[in-house]
Amino acid sequence: METVVTTLPEEGGVGPSPKMLLLLLLLGTGSGLAAVVSQYPSRVICKTGTSVKIECRCLDFQATTMFWYRQFQKQSLILMATSNEGSSVTYEQGIKRDKFPINHPNLTFSTLTVTNAHPEDSSFYICSARDTAPGRDQRPRQEPPAAGPLPQRGP
Fold first, then answer.
1. Per the record, where are the segments of Basic and acidic residues compositional bias (predicted)?
2. What is the rounded CA–CA span in Å between residue 42 and residue 54?
3. Torsions phi, psi for 18 (to 5 deg)
4. How far apart are the C-alpha atoms of 81 and 90, rounded to whole Å?
5. Which of 25, 65, 111, 128 has the fewest CB atoms in 10 Å of its CB?
6. Of all residues in the chain, what percent carry a pLDDT higher than 70?
């Protein structure tokens, strides 16, 4: 028996909605719309019981944090895990660490492995990245007003 593990939707297939992808893009990258994340392979068909490794690369920035999502057909995206380079992975409730091991060895690369794949593992697997560390002040900075005379009030 074969299992389909799709990492990105096929052209014309059901995948994340444009609004969800835009939200991921905005939330997943601290540098805005300029960051590019590449995922390989884009589609995998494997035999039941085998493992599939999905690679995620940051092409034009360094990611301190990587996010892995999955989406079953006609359902919303589900956050599976968050990884910070150089520390352990935080898995969401119900996601098994030994079933979906994640490696984030450096600031531009992460892998998700689907071990012992079965038909119920068939879904879209999507990575996203953020180039700023959690807890860092990401609020816009306001420049102080230019020095100069204060306006005079009338009598």
1. 133-142
2. 9
3. -55, -35
4. 6
5. 25
6. 62
Domains and CATH numbers, the chain: 2-130 (2.60.40.10)
For residue 62, what pLDDT band results from cuts at 50, 70 and 90?
A: confident
DSSP assigned state of 10: P
Tokens read off for 99: 């079933």
DSSP conformational letter for 144: P
Structure tokens, 12? 């014309």
User: How far apart are alpha carbons 54 and 31 in whole angstroms?
Assistant: 24
> Cα–chain-centroid distance for residue 3?
23
d(Cα 37, Cα 26) in Å, to the nearest integer? 13
